[in-house]
Write the structure tokens for this entry.
Amino acid sequence: MNNTRLQQLQQLINGSVEIDTMSKAEWVKAGGAKLPESGDQLELEQGFMLVTKADNHHVQVLRAQAELTLLEKELLSWLAKQGSMSKSASTSASELERQARKLGDWLQQSIDAGEWRAEIPERFELHHRLFDGMIPFLLMSEQAENREPSYVELEKVFRSYLSDEMLLIPLREREWLILGTDRLLAEVETNEGDMIERGETKEALVSLATGLHQMITEEWGGDCHVAVGEPIIPTESLVYAVATLRETINLGRKFHMGMHVHMPWLVHLERLLSGIPEPVRSRFMDEMSGRQDLFTDPETVSTLDAFFAMDCNVSETAKRLFIHRNTLLYRLDKLKQEAGLDVRSFNDAILVRLLMLLYKVTKRK
């Protein structure tokens, strides 16, 4: 407590006030409790003492020479306890960040070493907070010029959206791993109250990741990417999950510019294409050079994107595009006539899908 506050307190209670430090033994000898805590009081012949801070060996007390009512003393005691709780919370948050950064460093080292299947050693303090069935989210921010939110700020925001059981782990600069409980999926149930199917779980995960991305952009602005994976056992597969989600975001940024929410189960083809040597990809595009101009028409591209997103279902694609079914069929027939590719045919659909993905990459080079 600084001098200004001491003077203010003296004016309020109309008496002298000072801060003193004594050993625990001296506190007990004066009549205090053997295990003093902030807010404890001790009556004196003239005035009283109030514990403001206590550690293993010493007690900091506020000595006051004034006649106060019982209510006034209780209020002072309450204020001392609140101050102690605030400092304790701050210390706890600082310790949690230290532990989280330590685990994050180990995760990064394991990924760099190619040890994707490594299990988390029990020596880490956060090991006990990693329970079965946690949902991994990976957040990457692209706004290098903006102030990076502090660990405390981020954790507070994520905790408000996910739950008190979430865990925030810093990785590289402007990259964070968020672990939430799989109980977040409990709100998605079938009408019969049964366990949700895997497809429904994925839909729920997409919804959670989309909401997380929206919350972050509204809170801090700027561009960021969020990837989400299915629930895991962190102690066994957290390294693999982080590496996979990081790869998923990189593939999404490469093949799907403009998208900011990414799922590993939607980039299998992109992962395969990314692993093909560049000369092989270039030769394939050269062989199909006569058909690349179809991707320069925005209407054709948007139509094909929707068609593949709806699993090549004509009726659902027309609904998504808000056009008549016959209008969609006309567009697909026009594509067949001009490019010789009928996306309603399995083989041609695969070919067009490959061309679209590769064109999105090559056109930016």
